[in-house]
TrEMBL record, chain B:
It comes from Streptomyces humicola. Pfam families: ABC_tran (PF00005). PROSITE patterns: ABC_TRANSPORTER_2. It comes from the Bacteria. Gene3D superfamilies: P-loop containing nucleotide triphosphate hydrolases. This is ATP-binding cassette domain-containing protein. GO terms for molecular function: ATP binding. Residues 12-252 form the ABC transporter domain.
Length: 357, 286
C-alpha cells in the first residue's frame, strides 16, 4: 500500500460557491407569463372568429344567437372537458363519442323495459358509463398498450353493442319515447331544461358546463390530483418514481370521461326523448379537436380546462355562424379543419414566444 | 472518516444479491453496505449493472437472489413509495422530474402539502413555494423564478433541485445515478458539493458514476462493478485513485488515461500515488 493511501486526503471542499452563480434575468414579465398560459392561442382565435361572424352575419349579433352558440358549445364542451383532462394526463379516448350514446341507450332501455322511474335508468347509465371508463383505464394500465388501441377496441365494441342491443329490445334502430314515464319531468329539469337569464332563454347545459369548467380548473391547479394529472402526462416514469399513483390517476381520468359521457348522454335523452343507436360516431374526434384548439398538448403534460372550453365555444360559433350567415352547412367541416390547423400554428407560435427568455 | 466504526450500523445492506432480466443475468453476488454519513461510490463501465443495482435498492425492481436488508431487516420493495417510506430516496439518471411543470411543483410532486378538509382540500401553494425556495437557498441554489418549468433549468441546477428535494423529505439514504455524467467541470463541482453537504447532514449516499475522479473526491467506500459482479469493494484507505482508475479501465487503456489524468490532477492531488507504485493486482480488502 502506498503511503498516501493510508492517510487519505479528505474530500476536497467544493470550490464553486453556488451563490456565485450569476443571477439571470429577473422575474419574467407579466406579458410573458400570460403568453405561457395554454389557452392564450384559443382566446385570440375565439376573438377573431367572433369578430369575423359579427361582420359577416348580422343575425349572429343578438343575445339569443349567442345563447344558441353557447348551447352548441356546451354539449361539445361538457365532453371536451374530461377528454382534455385525459389528454393532459397523456391518454386518448376514442370511445368517448359512442359512449355518450351507450349511456343514453342504457338509461332509456333499462327504464322502459322494466317500467321503472326514469331516474333508475339514469343511475343504471351512470354505473355503466363509469364501468366503461374503468374498463378503458384498467386495460390500459394492465397491458401497457397505447390508449389509441385500447379505446379503439372499446369504440368498436360499444358501437356494435349500441346497435345490436337496441335492436334486441326495440326491434328498431331507435329507442321508444320515454317522455310520458315517471320521473321524466324532474330529470328533464336537471339535464335539459331552458331557463331565462335577463330575458334570454338559455339551455341549462350551458350553466352546468361553466360550473364544471370552473371546478375542473380548480382541481387542475389547486389540488393534489390536478398536480398528478400533469405529472402522469408529462413524465409518467418520473411521477411513479416520486410516489405518484400513476395507474390510479389514469383510471380515474378515464372514469371522468365516463362521467362526462353519462351527463351528455342524459341531456340528449331528456332533450329528444328517444335515442338513435347509430349516433355518436366521429364526435370523439371533435372533442379532441376542441382540446387541441384549447391548447392541450397532444403528447400530454400541458393544457388547461378553460382552453378546451374556448375551443368548444369556437366550434359553436363556427357551426351556428355558418347557419346565421346563410351559407351552405357543407362548409362546416372545412372551416373546422382550418380552425384546427390555424390553432395549432398559433399555439406553437405563442408557446415559442413564451419560452423565449 | 474513511474507517467505519461499529456504532454506525449500515442502513442498507445487500448480501449475495442477484438480479435477472428474463434470462439475462444483470447482477450476481453483490455485497454492499451503506452507512450514515458516508458516501459509497459504485463505479463501472456502461452496462455493468449500476442502474440495475440502484433500481433494486430503490424499489423499482425486485432482486431474485440473496438478501436485501434495511436496518438489518430483510425487505422486498414492490414500489418506490415503500422505499421512500423507509427513507431511501433516489435521484435517477433521468432525474425523475417532469420538465413542463414548475420547479416548486416538481419539488413537492408526490408529497404535496395540502390544507382544508375534503372536498375542499387543496394545495397549500404559498407554503410549498416558500419551503421550496428556502430549501433550495439552504443548499446554495438560487433561482430567479421558482415558477419556471424545471425543464428550462441547466442540468446541474436540475440535479441540485432533485438532491435538495430528497434531503428535505427526510431521506436517510440518497441514491444518485450518474449525477455528473452530463455536466461540465463547474457544474459537476456544484453537484459534488451537494453530495458532501448531504453526507455532512448524516445521510448515507450511494453515488453512481463513470468517473473515478469524481468518486475519489467525495467517496468513503468504492465498489467497482464489471459484467454484473463486484470486481472491487474497498474503503478509501485501501485504494488509491490510480488503482481505482486501473480497475475501471483495465490495463491496456491505462496509459492513455494516465496521460489524461495528469492534466486534471489539480482536483485532488494528495490522493494520487506515484506512477511507480501502481500495483498489478487489485487491493484485497483485508
Ligand atoms: N429492463 C431491462 N431488461 C433487460 N435487460 C436490461 C434491462 N435493463 C438493463 N438491462 C441489461 O442489464 C445490464 C445492466 O444494465 P444497467 O442499466 O444496470 O447498466 P449501467 O451500469 O447502469 O450502464 P450505464 O453506465 O450505461 O448507465 C445491461 O446488459 C442491460 O442491457
Ligand atoms: Mg445507468
Amino acid at each position: 500500500m502506498s503511503a498516501q493511501a493510508t492517510t487519505p486526503s479528505p474530500p476536497s471542499p467544493p470550490t464553486q460557491s453556488a451563490t456565485g452563480l450569476e443571477k439571470r434575468t429577473a422575474e419574467r414579465s407579466l406579458a410573458r407569463r400570460f403568453l405561457a398560459r395554454p389557452e392564450v392561442g384559443a382566446l385570440i382565435g375565439a376573438i377573431a372568429v367572433y369578430a369575423f361572424f359579427w361582420v359577416a352575419a348580422p343575425t349572429f349579433r343578438p343575445a339569443d344567437s349567442l345563447s344558441t352558440v353557447l348551447y352548441q358549445a356546451s354539449t361539445l364542451g361538457l365532453m371536451a372537458l374530461p377528454v382534455s383532462l385525459l389528454m393532459i394526463g397523456g391518454e386518448f379516448d376514442l370511445s368517448a363519442g359512442v359512449a355518450v350514446i351507450t349511456s343514453s341507450l342504457t338509461a332509456s332501455i333499462f327504464a322502459y323495459e322494466l317500467t321503472l322511474n326514469v331516474w333508475m335508468g339514469v343511475i343504471a347509465a351512470l354505473v355503466v358509463s363509469l364501468a366503461v371508463g374503468f374498463f378503458n383505464g384498467y386495460v390500459l394500465v394492465k397491458t401497457g398498450l397505447p390508449s389509441f388501441l385500447v379505446t379503439l377496441g372499446t369504440f368498436l365494441m360499444l358501437q356494435g353493442l349500441n346497435l345490436a342491443v337496441t335492436k334486441i329490445f326495440t326491434g328498431n334502430v331507435a329507442t321508444n319515447d320515454i317522455s310520458d314515464m315517471q320521473g321524466f319531468s324532474s330529470a328533464k329539469a336537471i339535464f335539459a331544461s331552458d331557463i331565462t337569464i335577463a330575458g334570454v332563454p338559455v339551455k341549462i347545459t350551458v350553466l352546468w358546463w361553466l360550473l364544471f369548467v370552473a371546478l375542473a380548473t380548480w382541481m387542475l391547479l389547486r389540488t393534489k390530483f390536478g398536480n398528478w394529472i400533469f405529472a402522469v402526462g408529462g413524465q409518467k416514469d418520473s411521477a411513479r418514481a416520486v410516489g405518484v399513483p400513476v395507474a390510479r390517476t389514469k383510471i380515474v381520468l378515464f372514469m371522468l370521461v365516463g362521467l362526462g359521457a353519462w351527463f351528455v348522454g342524459m341531456h340528449e335523452l331528456f332533450e329528444f326523448n328517444t335515442v338513435q343507436s347509430g349516433e355518436g360516431v366521429g364526435n370523439e374526434l371533435l372533442y379532441i379537436v376542441a382540446a387541441v384548439i384549447g391548447g392541450c398538448l397532444l403528447t400530454g403534460g400541458f393544457g388547461s380546462a378553460i382552453g378546451p372550453a374556448i375551443g368548444a365555444f369556437i366550434f359553436g360559433m363556427v357551426t351556428q355562424g355558418i347557419v346565421f350567415a346563410g351559407w351552405n352547412p357543407d362548409w362546416f367541416k372545412f372551416f373546422l379543419g382550418v380552425m384546427l390547423l390555424g390553432a395549432m400554428l398559433l399555439n406553437t407560435w405563442v408557446r415559442r414566444q413564451a419560452s423565449r427568455r | 472518516m474513511a474507517q467505519s466504526t461499529a456504532d454506525d450500523a449500515p442502513i442498507v445492506e445487500l448480501h449475495d444479491m442477484g438480479k435477472m432480466y428474463g434470462n439475462i443475468r444483470a447482477l450476481r453476488g453483490i455485497d454492499l453496505a451503506v452507512r450514515p454519513g458516508r458516501v459509497t461510490c459504485v463505479l463501472g463501465d456502461n452496462g455493468a449493472g449500476k442502474s440495475t443495482l440502484i433500481k433494486v435498492i430503490s424499489g423499482l425492481h425486485q432482486h431474485d437472489e440473496g438478501e436485501y436488508r434495511v436496518d438489518g431487516e430483510p425487505v422486498r420493495f414492490t414500489t418506490p413509495r415503500e422505499a421512500l417510506d423507509r427513507g431511501i430516496a433516489t435521484v435517477y439518471q433521468d432525474l425523475a422530474v417532469v420538465p413542463l411543470m414548475p420547479v416548486w411543483r416538481n419539488f413537492f410532486l408526490g408529497s404535496e402539502i395540502t390544507r382544508g378538509v375534503w372536498p375542499l382540500r387543496r394545495l397549500d401553494i404559498e407554503r410549498m413555494k416558500k419551503i421550496a425556495d428556502e430549501e433550495l437557498r439552504a443548499m446554495g441554489i438560487e433561482l430567479d423564478d421558482i415558477d419556471r418549468p424545471i425543464g428550462t433549468l441547466s442540468g446541474g441546477q436540475r440535479q441540485s433541485v432533485a438532491i435538495a428535494r430528497a434531503v428535505y423529505f427526510g431521506a436517510r439514504v440518497l441514491i444518485l445515478d450518474e449525477p455528473t455524467a452530463a455536466l461540465g467541470v463547474k457544474q459537476s463541482g456544484v453537484v459534488l458539493k451537494y453530495i458532501a453537504a448531504a453526507r455532512d447532514r448524516g445521510l448515507g449516499v450511494i453515488f453512481i458514476t463513470h468517473n473515478p475522479h469524481h468518486a475519489y473526491m467525495v467517496g468513503d467506500h468504492f465498489a467497482v462493478l464489471r459484467l454484473g459482479a463486484l470486481e472491487l469493494s474497498a474503503d478509501r484507505g485501501q485504494v488509491s485513485l490510480e488503482e481505482l482508475t486501473n480497475h475501471m479501465a483495465g490495463g491496456a487503456e491505462l496509459a492513455a488515461l494516465k496521460h489524461e489524468l495528469a492534466q486534471v490532477r489539480g482536483v485532488d492531488v494528495e490522493g494520487l500515488p506515484e506512477e511507480t507504485e501502481l500495483p498489478a493486482t487489485p487491493a484485497s480488502s483485508s
